[in-house]
Amino acid sequence: MLVSLKDVTKTFPGEDGIVSVLSGVSLDLAAGHSLALTGESGSGKSTLLHIVAGLEQADSGTVKIDGNEVGPMNDAARAELRRNRIGIVFQQFNLIPSLNVTANISFQARLAANHDPARTASLIERLGLSDQAHAFPEQLSGGQQQRVAIGRALAGQPALLLADEPTGNLDEATGDAVIALMLELASETGAGVLMVTHSERLAARLDARAHLSRGQISS
Amino acid sequence: MKRTALAALLSHWRYHPLQLVTLVLGLALATALWSGVQAINAEARASYDRAAQAVGGTRPVITGESGGITRDQYVSLRRAGWQVTPLIEGWIDGGQGRIRLIGIDPLTAPTDMTGGTTVAEGFDLTAFLSGSGQILTSPATANRITSTDLPPVVTVEDLGPGLALTDIGTAQRLLEAPGRIDRLIVRDTQPLTRTPLSEIAPDLELSASGGTADLARLTDSFHLNLTAFGLLSFAVGLFIVHGAIGLAFEQRRALFRTLRALGVPANSLTGLMIMELVMLALLSGLLGVILGYAIAAALIPDVAATLRGLYGVPVEGALSLRPVWWAAGIGISILGALAAAAGVIWKVARLPVLAPARPRAWAMATGSTILYQAAGAALLAIIAVLMGMFGTGLIAGFTMLGALLIAAALLLPAILSLILSLAARFAQGPIAEWFWADTRQQIPGLSLALMALLLALATNIGVGTMVSSFRLTFTGWLDQRLASELYVTARDEAEAAELIEWLRPRTDAILPIWNVDGQVAGAPAEIFGVADHTTYRDNWPLLSSLPDVWDRVADGTGILINEQLARREDLSPGDSLAMPDGWEPTISGVYSDYGNPLAQVLISVEELTMRFPDVERLNFGLRLPPDQVDPLTEALVTEFGLPEENTIDQISIKRFSLEVFDRTFLVSGALNVLTLAVAGFAILTSLLTLASMRLPQLAPAWALGMTRAQLAGLELIRALALALLTALLAIPVGLLLAWVLLAVINVEAFGWRLPMHLFPANWLVLALLALLAAGLAGLWPSIRLSRLQPATLLKVFSHER
Amino acid sequence: MSVRAWITILMLAASAGSAGAQGFADLGSEADGFAIPQRGVPFEFPRDHGAHPDYRIEWWYVTATLTGEDGRDYGVQWTLFRSALAPAETNDWNSPQIWMGHAGLTTPEEHFVAERLARGGIGQAGVTAQPFSAWIDEWVLQGPTLSNVNMRAQGTDFSYDLTLSTDRPFVPQGDRGYSVKSREGQASYYYSQPFYEVTGTLSLPDGPIRVSGNAWLDREWSSQPLSENQTGWDWFSLAFDDGARLMGFLLRERDGASFSSATWITADGTPTPYPDGAFQARPLTTAEVAGRDIPVRWQVTLPDRDLDVTVSALNPQSWMDTSFAYWEGPVRFEGSHAGRGYLEMTGYE
User: Which residue of B has its CA nearest to C98?
Assistant: First the structure.
């Protein structure tokens, strides 16, 4: 299994005491497959994604990537895992404003020391950013920025692509096109995809879907 | 990974070049002022060391009770096993001013007294020891020797400035002092057994070194003064650095989060931040050292002139580059940058991966921060008061000064906040209300820059008040002290006798000014003889005295001492004082004696000639109607045949004294201006910083109907108002500073206390300067605001979620 | 160049002869106004025990081979050099006479050295003939006469106080006191007193030691530097168990050749001078001393007297680390003859 979650729980301190966000979530994602994670706002889907990325830690349960348990890893090991195995596409793009498109796309691959300029170049072409290769993020439209973020996530050929509401900041038409491109590129590289979305329509385009409701999977 | 991440961090600066300039320039300025002052101090100290080495360095010395040591005493000591070497000192005319001549015996002198091992070509011991001899000097001093009456000059690199070294035999000839030895330097290594000094020559005295210690003690206060200024400038510079780094951090919060999400561990990120900082500090340090060198090179001629004029200490007016100085400058730059960024680095290290990426209103310190600062200020104020009550010494004085200044700076935001909330309460109309409330909200963000401005202004007022008070007092004192209209010096005793005869019918009074050097209360002192004359009774600047003070001096039962001696030894009128030959007269008065580093005792001239029969009787003060001064001076030269340089009139002495005085504080003045400039720069950078963050606060006001021009104008007024308030608050702080300088530091450093005078006109000038600085600093961000595209303001509403 | 270094060269030039200022043709002339030794001028005592300021260089050189109450061998050196910048003396600081004192004390394990410098004219150093007194600072060689003297010197860590006496005559070296130093003819006035009996005390870091033994005085003055190609010398003073004495020296030359001279002195003080080549000395063993190789065992021969002995240093590290550094220390010898003596070696780089 590429991703394997078992009985994952997570609580946060809230205004009226402890709030349980995830209460015993288990799910599996095989390599090369894609899974959409849907749910209402506050259902805990982003938290689940963060836990898979090692950005947050589960209170209990096990999280395995490639069969390795993430929970006991320290900060450096988790950072290494993200750097080498995972690509992330954020809702707010999170591009580096002082780097141009090419540099942003190749950035994570360079961090992981598996940068392939030819791949970056072909990605830029596939993403339709050839004319903007040297532009800076603030000169791009939202859709273009999200395509750069997708390029950055995939340039290092990760085993797992995590996407958190990747079209949340885009209009519907642009969002559809971006998702199509993202899935196409991911399947070309054989990356497994875990995408958080609140849109049923987008979720339908993935291999499988899981619905998160009140901290539990109900598929 | 690290290179990629570091490149991403650094790309921020390419994107924000102004921030980079601020950071680098701020750090460079701080480093420049600091290392410039250090360079000046180091240069001066090296000069002292070289000068001291030529006269035996820190070795113990043997001196005679009154004046010299005879050749027989020297030989007796050598023959009793004492490894001592003789020394004679005096002044010769080099053709372009006086040169200090030191005669040594190269056969018995330690190597370091002979200028080390770098005697240049042309030196030859045979020539040095025989015939007309040779004079060794540094190349700079050699240029000042044009007289053809002197032996050949050979240049030596390691010899102190203004010094001429020659064989003792040659020196005795040039100084017309055959056989004279001033003192014996005791060498570091001594043989197994020596006959005790008391058995060989009971009237000789062994004492700890004169050398470096004397010069260092003499000039300590001056260097401490410079160091304090350097440190202050450095601190002000670090305010800028702190601001720039803080801003760069806040603006890169999102970047940090992205980097962490993309797989850069927290430790690496912290390491990279430090690496980035060190790189920038290296660059700034290098720039700062070069700048510092320029500052030092520009100031050192004045410093040298000061040290020569005020202390009689020769210092080379040129700067030499020392590798250790480069290293120290860059080192202090790195340390300063790390200190200024310590808080930020700490935050980066502990930043959670999913920290909010939006720039927090970083400048918006909470009310509790202001409270903490006020508490810190109170603590520091207590320390300052304790230092003032129980501390002794210069270090305690400066600690007190530092604590007071920082306390005032820390208290500033609280006081400003209070004033602004009062203003808001009494404001009329919505715009005024908004203006005051908004201004108050800016204080935390601007507080560092305003603190820097407060420090700079207070220092300016404090030092300015001290210098002006000193000058006023000094001028008045000169008027009292220099009562004689004309001063003459005879070339020898025979001429002195003729001179008196010649002058008697031409003047109202001829007052001897004769003195000897001696040890009083364990330190070197000048002992002057004065005639019993109304000139002294009417004019002498007495600080405290017994009744009939001048009668007591005249009949030989009383003496006067200067304030320095009185303060150092805690003496007051009525106490008795042990004089060199066992005489213990009563102190009948204490007088002020500014500018004199030495202890001084005034006795009647009869006592002087009786107790010190060898005293040189060559100097006289003449009383005569002022309009007779010029004719008499001319007659002295043309009719009597006295060389022109042997006469000097009161007006010339006063002018010269004031020139020396003004030069002394020229350096303080220059550093003052530089500090103020740095503070102005701090305000500019803070305003620019805030300007970019203030859009969310300004956009609503714009949206609600204020024009951009209106907003820009208010921004400028805000800067001016804050500067004005700070300037007003700086006045009491500066006066407090002046009081500490006059009543504490001066007493510790020089041994005299000065009355404080107030100079409100100077405050006005400074306040205007502060307004100018703030106005200039506020203008740029204000203009930028007035030209802002409406779209940019609109973005605030669309971007911020 | 430091004063110290200069003094080294000054002393070296005057005594060891590295300088070639005086060419061959100048020999016998009065260089710079200095007097030049002449053959056949008899010594006149006590006058000649005193200083000769007209000559460029002069010394009073005492070496003593001693035995302590602890049974161990010791050596003591007391030397006063005079070097003149001009052939004159004044009574003030402008004196052109420079004095240098060297004191050495050698034990089998240690070697102590001290040095003093002084100018003439002021009384810090000097020599008077009658009553005899030679001094620099507190160091003295002081008699009523030079046959009966007290010898004292000290450094930071040692001192000695010895009484030297003899009833035997002073012994002229070379041709009635005219001692030739090179084939070119440079020469000096030279006489010795090789027969002193010594008693006294040494003060060492471990405490005082009573000693007794013999001492040898060399008196020499000249104005001529040595020949330009002479690089140094090896000088031997040997005291035989039967009371006879031998002085022999070797002036080494740049090309490996050498110039030798010797005087055999019978127990009653009768000298027999030997010309160049009669006396031979050959290094057998060297030791590393102060960073250079110095011979510390020698084969010394004088065939005319059937002398063939091996001379060994008491302490190979007898290095005089003074402004003008050299090796000087006590020796023992055995072979055809046995006894003790002193060895001085200069010019080893």
Answer: B107
Are A169 and A146 spatial neighbours (Cβ–Cβ below 8 Å)? yes
Torsion of CA B720, B723, B729, B735, to 10 degrees: -120
Q: Contact B357/A99, CB-based, under 8 Å?
A: no
Q: Which of A96, A105, A134 to mutate to test the interface with B (most CBs of B within 10 A)?
A: A96
Residue B173 host element (H or E) = helix B168-174
Please determine, for residue B301, whether its predicted confidence score (pLDDT) is greater than 80: no
Distance CA C331, CA C284 (A): 14
B667: which 2 tokens? 């350096």
The per-residue pLDDT for range C170-191, each reduced to its tens digit, is 999 999 999 988 888 888 999 9
Q: Where are the alpha helices (DSSP H) in B482-562?
A: 493-503, 534-539, 549-554
Q: Are B344 and B274 in contact (CB under 8 A)?
A: no
- Domain locations in chain B? 1-50+221-360, 59-208, 367-394+408-483+650-801, 486-624
What is the torsional sign of CA C17, C21, C27, C33?
Answer: negative
User: In chain A, positions 156-215, which contact chain B (CB-CB < 8 Å)?
Assistant: none
ipTM of the complex: 0.91
Asked if B356 has any chain A CB less than 8 Å from its own CB, the reply is: no
Over residues B564-570, mean pLDDT: 82
Please check whether residue A73 touches B, CB under 8 A. no
Nearest CA in chain A to B801: A92
Chain B neighbours, 3+ Cβ pairs < 8 A:
A, C
Q: For residue A137, give the DSSP letter.
A: G
Compute the distance between CA of residue C10 and CA of residue C86 in angstroms, rounded to an integer. 13
Which residues 66-95 of chain B have a CB within 8 Å of chain C?
A: 71-72, 74-75, 78-81, 83
User: Which tokens belong to B672?
Assistant: 């003052």
Here the tokens at position B98 are 């006086």
The answer to whether B81 and B191 have CB atoms below 8 angstroms apart is yes
* C-beta neighbour count of B644 within 10 angstroms: 11
B and A in touch (3+ CB pairs within 8 angstroms):
yes
**Per-residue pLDDT tens digits for C305-334:** 999 999 999 999 999 988 778 999 999 999
The Cα–Cα gap between B387 and B379 comes to 12
Domains of chain C: 3-18+33-345 (2.40.370.10)
CATH code, A33-57+84-217: 3.40.50.300
Contact B790, B709 (CB under 8 A): no
Which of C81, C82, C122 would best serve as a mutation to test chain B binding (most B beta carbons within 10 A)?
Answer: C122
Q: How far apart are CA B441 and CA C127, in angstroms?
A: 94
B114 reaches C (C-beta below 8 A)? yes
Residues of C whose CB is below 8 A from B105: 93, 119
Bridge-based pairing state of the strands C178-180 and C187-204: antiparallel
Rg (CA), chain B: 33
Tokens, residue A161 = 């692509």
Angle at B464 between CA B458 and CA B466, to 5 degrees: 105
CA angle C124, C129, C135 (to 5 degrees): 25
Report pTM. 0.57
Distance CA(B210)–CA(B34), nearest Å, equals: 30
Do C203 and C68 form a contact (C-beta atoms < 8 A)? no
What is the token pair recorded at B784? 């930028």
Cα–Cα distance measured from residue A99 to residue B2, given in angstroms and rounded to the nearest whole number: 16
Q: Tell whether B123 is within 8 A of chain C (Cβ).
A: yes
Residue B74: exposure state from Cβ atoms within 10 A (0-12, 13-18, ≥19): buried
